[in-house]
């Protein structure tokens, strides 16, 4: 047997349970490396937020270091999630020299607990002045430390929060936890109307991640992919996704090898990955972990994105997270499956067996619909980014109009409920005649799936599908948690008020829910969310259709939003203002960078390719004339040469105009004004420049074209 034959044999894989979580400093590792007292202190810090004394921190740091060294780590880093999106790290060696040629590995409690990364280059929305550019990262014991393995070595990563010296949060973690706590508190209060035994609740989140894979060598030849994350020019190949033969098709070998590899690394880090498959577009894939508590699920999603990109390097691949990397090809999202579960084990979005359970289900279900209706603009703002603008409403992604899909069974239930046709008598479940309190338990299986809705009920959870693939989920989940929590608090107040008037509890709940259905049912939409009819119908209903980010972000600046976040302690005024400013800034920076890259791309690649080819044409035309051919024989070549000139001129002129608009936009005083100018005045040129560039790609010799084409980028051989 030859060597190549041997290496083609399938590897014997270990069972996942043998290595799941082996790279985290979780309960098992802790039991081995630190004392029982230290474990107690970590658990206490995790559960109560109580800070830990230095001596204890020293002890834990020492155990953590010994564990990490036993795994081969040489360095450590605080790992955090700044507001620009990706994760951040700054590595230090454990090594401490003790003499000219001696040293030891050390790691103190001080280094574990707090660090001061040079923070001035992270987005801060003006919170930190440059003369006081100090922020610090502080150990977050609620998330286990882990080892990141790369080809070049291993690093102990310590999850931390990132805070300004003046105390404001500069990352996602603190407000996310606050929003989760707010939701579990109000959920518990409402649950107690039904069951006094409920003392707490958890928010569950399962995040499906879509992504594109591209060969690294081809990727590196596309400055637009490298610097903007998406292609700014490029034509759809003749065979695109028309046949949709990619979806759930067999996974190409090269991709399959990559998937099993990154899954293994992710599983070692305790990320419970469950599913993998091809997506609709060629080159597009999806993976999804088992759902977890929301805060953990979101940490894991950020970590997963890191792992996927790292492992891709080993396979000479690049992961593309952008929401719309290829024009005319489906974009990517990050579906957030969200539910709330009580400490008695009840999923509040699962219809139960008894009438009482189902009144509770309807309470949470209808309150969610009302929360989305009342806060649709804010929810839209929570998913607004320059990249997601290309996807929302692009015929294969949910529109920018917020709506809720609930399926025909529940629509019928709500109709009957609203009409007060509530019968509490237990009746046999019949699929035809729905008795409001006897919602068929088979709902989970018979819920119709609507893949065109931005916010769909899927049997026992809501799926927020409009979140962008590159986004940090905390943006959406902080808003979703907070609007729901606030709604539940209001609901509870209304119920209490009616009960004071001697109205029975059940009657009070029903009456209020009936009112909610009436006032918010406009947000429910069961039809095709991708169609033009919906845009018209939504306008008739008075639902907003905010197509671009800078206008969507205005929802963060309203009094209503400030009251919601500040009165409920999720953000301080300063934090909220800073975050909003960062969002406007992120938008304009992204568009600004794209504008510059596009300018370079057309000048350094597109126009030179076109002119080289045009020169060949001219040589041919002249040559043919020289050997006496009639003018008519060069008609086609003449036309192509002319068309090249026309498109080159159009690119040149539009690029000059775009540059001028950028200059004007940069001179505006506020980030929101600049963002709007970039959106309205600069971005439209991207389309016109691209149109000419794509025309040139079509016209000229394949070999003369300097950029890898879509057909090379998208199809794995
Ligand atoms: P889909 O049809 O959307 O692919 P799946 O059942 O595959 O649905 O679930 C997708 C994601 O939803 C997974 O991450 C899964 O763990 C998560 N999920 C399932 N049930 C719940 C729940 N009750 N709460 C939150 N997430 C859930
Ligand atoms: Mg899904």
What report would you give on this structure?
With 717 residues, the chain is α+β, with helices and mostly antiparallel strands. It folds into three domains: 3-170, Ubiquitin-like (UB roll) (Roll); 180-571, Creatine Kinase, Chain A, domain 2 (2-Layer Sandwich); 584-713, Four Helix Bundle (Hemerythrin (Met), subunit A), CATH 1.20.120. Helix content is 49%, strand content 13%. The chain has 26 helices and 17 strands. The strands form three sheets. Strands 9, 10, 11, 12, 13, 14, 15, 16 and 17 form a nine-stranded mixed sheet that branches. A hairpin with a 2-residue loop joins strand 7 and strand 8. The longest helix has 54 residues, at 573-626. It is globular. The two termini are 27 Å apart.
Topology:
Blueprint: H1 3-7, H2 16-19, H3 27-33, H4 36-48, H5 54-70, E1 73-80, E2 88-93, E3 95-97, E4 103-105, H6 109-113, E5 114-115, E6 135-139, E7 146-150, E8 153-164, H7 173-191, E9 201-215, H8 216-220, H9 223-228, H10 253-268, E10 273-278, E11 284-289, E12 292-293, H11 294-314, E13 317-320, E14 334-342, H12 355-374, H13 376-382, H14 386-389, E15 404-405, H15 408-418, H16 443-446, E16 455-457, E17 462-464, H17 474-500, H18 505-520, H19 532-541, H20 549-552, H21 559-567, H22 573-626, H23 635-666, H24 671-682, H25 684-699, H26 710-714
Parallel strand pairs: 1-8, 15-16
Antiparallel strand pairs: 1-2, 3-4, 5-6, 6-8, 7-8, 9-11, 9-12, 9-13, 9-14, 10-11, 14-17, 16-17
């Amino acid at each position: 047997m030859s060597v190549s034959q041997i290496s083609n044999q399938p590897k014997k894989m270990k069972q996942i349970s043998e290595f799941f979580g082996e790279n985290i400093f979780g309960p098992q590792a802790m039991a081995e490396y630190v004392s029982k007292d230290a474990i107690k202190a970590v658990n206490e810090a995790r559960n109560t937020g109580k800070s830990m004394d230095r001596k204890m921190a020293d002890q834990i740091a020492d155990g953590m270091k010994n564990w990490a060294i036993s795994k081969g780590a040489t360095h450590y880093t605080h790992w955090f999630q700044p507001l620009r999106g990706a994760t951040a790290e700054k590595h230090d060696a454990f090594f401490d020299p003790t003499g000219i040629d001696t040293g030891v590995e050390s790691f103190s409690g001080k280094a574990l607990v707090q660090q001061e990364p040079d923070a001035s280059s992270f987005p801060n929305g003006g919170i930190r002045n440059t003369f006081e550019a100090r922020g610090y990262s502080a150990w977050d014991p609620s998330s286990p430390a882990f080892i990141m393995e790369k080809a070049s070595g291993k690093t102990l990563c310590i999850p931390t929060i990132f805070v300004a010296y003046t105390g404001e949060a500069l990352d996602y973690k603190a407000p996310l936890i606050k929003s989760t706590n707010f939701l579990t508190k109000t959920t518990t209060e409402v649950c107690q109307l039904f069951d006094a035994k409920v003392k707490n609740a958890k928010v569950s989140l399962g995040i499906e991640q879509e992504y594109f894979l591209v060969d690294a060598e081809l990727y590196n030849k596309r400055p637009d992919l490298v610097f903007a994350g998406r292609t700014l020019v490029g034509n759809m190949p003749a065979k695109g996704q028309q046949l949709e033969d990619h979806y759930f098709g067999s996974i190409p070998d090269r991709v399959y090898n990559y998937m099993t590899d990154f899954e293994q690394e992710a599983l070692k880090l305790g990320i419970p990955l469950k599913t993998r498959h091809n997506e609709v577009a060629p080159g597009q894939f999806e993976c999804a972990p088992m759902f977890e508590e929301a805060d953990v699920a979101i940490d894991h999603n950020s970590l997963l994105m890191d792992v996927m990109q790292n492992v891709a390097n080993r396979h000479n691949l690049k992961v593309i997270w952008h929401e719309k990397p290829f024009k005319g090809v489906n974009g990517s999202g990050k579906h957030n499956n969200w539910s709330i579960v009580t400490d008695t084990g009840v999923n509040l979005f699962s219809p139960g067996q008894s009438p009482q359970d189902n009144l509770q289900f309807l309470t949470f279900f209808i309150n969610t619909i009302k929360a989305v209706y009342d806060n649709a603009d804010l929810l839209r703002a929570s998913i607004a980014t320059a990249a997601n603008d290309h996807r929302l409403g692009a015929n294969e992604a949910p529109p920018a109009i917020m709506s809720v899909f609930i399926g025909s069974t529940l629509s019928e239930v709500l109709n009957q409920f609203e009409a007060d046709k509530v019968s509490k008598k237990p009746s046999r479940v019949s699929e035809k005649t729905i008795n409001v309190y006897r919602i068929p338990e088979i709902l989970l299986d018979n819920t119709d799936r609507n893949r065109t809705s931005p916010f769909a009920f899927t049997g026992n959870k809501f799926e927020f599908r409009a979140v962008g693939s590159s986004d940090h989920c905390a943006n959406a989940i902080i808003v979703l948690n907070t609007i729901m929590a606030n709604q539940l608090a209001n609901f509870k107040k209304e119920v209490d008020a009616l009960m004071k008037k001697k109205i029975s509890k059940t009657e009070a709940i029903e009456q209020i829910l009936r009112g909610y259905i009436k006032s918010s049912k406009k947000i429910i939409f069961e039809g095709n969310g991708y169609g033009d009819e919906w845009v018209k119908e939504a306008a008739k209903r008075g639902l907003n259709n905010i197509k671009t980010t800078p206008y969507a972000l205005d929802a963060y600046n309203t009094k209503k939003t400030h009251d919601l976040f500040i009165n409920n302690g999720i953000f301080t005024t300063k934090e909220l203002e800073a975050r909003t400013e960062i969002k406007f800034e992120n938008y304009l920076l992204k568009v600004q960078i794209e504008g510059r890259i596009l300018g370079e791309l057309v000048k350094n690649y597109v126009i030179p390719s076109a002119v080289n080819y045009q020169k060949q044409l001219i040589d041919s035309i002249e040559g043919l004339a020289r050997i006496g051919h009639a003018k008519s024989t060069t008609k086609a070549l003449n036309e192509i040469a002319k068309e090249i000139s026309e498109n080159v001129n159009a690119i040149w002129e539009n690029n000059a105009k775009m540059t001028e608009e950028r200059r004007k936009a940069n001179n505006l005083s506020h980030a929101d004004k600049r963002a709007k100018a970039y959106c309205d005045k600069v971005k439209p040129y991207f389309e016109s420049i691209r149109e000419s560039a794509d025309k040139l790609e079509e016209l000229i010799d394949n070999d003369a074209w300097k950029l890898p084409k879509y057909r090379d980028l998208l199809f794995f051989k």
